[in-house]
Amino acid sequence: MHDSNVVAMEPACGSTCPPAPMMKEVMPYDRAVVGLPELAALLGVPLDVPAGMVDVEFSVRRLRPGETLCRAGDEFEALYIVRSGFLKTVSLDGAGNEQVLAFPMRADAIGVDGFDGGHYTVDAIALDSCHVIIVPFQRIAGLARSIPGVERLVYSIFNHELVHRQNMVRLLGMLNAEARVAAFLLDLSERFGRLGCSKSSFILRMTRQELGSYLGIKLETVSRALSAFAASGLMDVSRREMVLNDVAALRRKLESPAAKDCARRAGQQRPVAPVSSSARVASRTLALSQMAA
Description:
9 helices, disordered C terminus, five-stranded antiparallel sheet, four-stranded antiparallel sheet, single chain, alpha+beta, about 20% strand, disordered N terminus, Jelly Rolls
């Protein structure tokens, strides 16, 4: 089911941003599968793979813009690690209104939400051409029994999600609308930088409406914030192209007293989806690895 759409890879950061030189050697993009060492390198986890297991491989699925990777209610079978491109994870209410919960990009995991209850709780949709590594959970749990480093790899995936949720609580509960937009741009800048891409010039793959949904503010508020930053010379904005001219000034937007005034209003806040506790995740992962042995 997972192997039906695997193709040659594109550069990790997309056509506008070449991968870091170090990545070119350990992450070739002309294969429809990746090995366990490559997966660990992508996630930044040191891993010594025994000689007899160097040929362990995981399929890679290509997604076209608008294509769905998994849907809320689908049975949890695998974790998905983004190798290139951007996606969004969304939750739909009874009326079909979309709430954007995250924008996964390279090295981010998708599907952690499905671990605890056995079913995915969100839809994951490609925002541009994407390549996603399929990591069947029963298989990775079994490998964790044979290769101690794999257990740490699994934990790191869940820990990354926990950190993301904690950051979202801070973003939505402590900052006003303009500061939220600044925080998002700064975070995206840092993430691009870690991939060896430009930290000051990039293209937003999401629409302003999607960004507003993620930040808990209106489309018009996002546009006003970007226009204000541009008028102040902090950045240049051309449709979805962003050039950050003064990162330090943007960062000061997060520290000013005004940045926290509006955040106390109930209308500015939205709930953050619950996430399994690290202790429960750890115990269940260990149990699965033992069962798979």
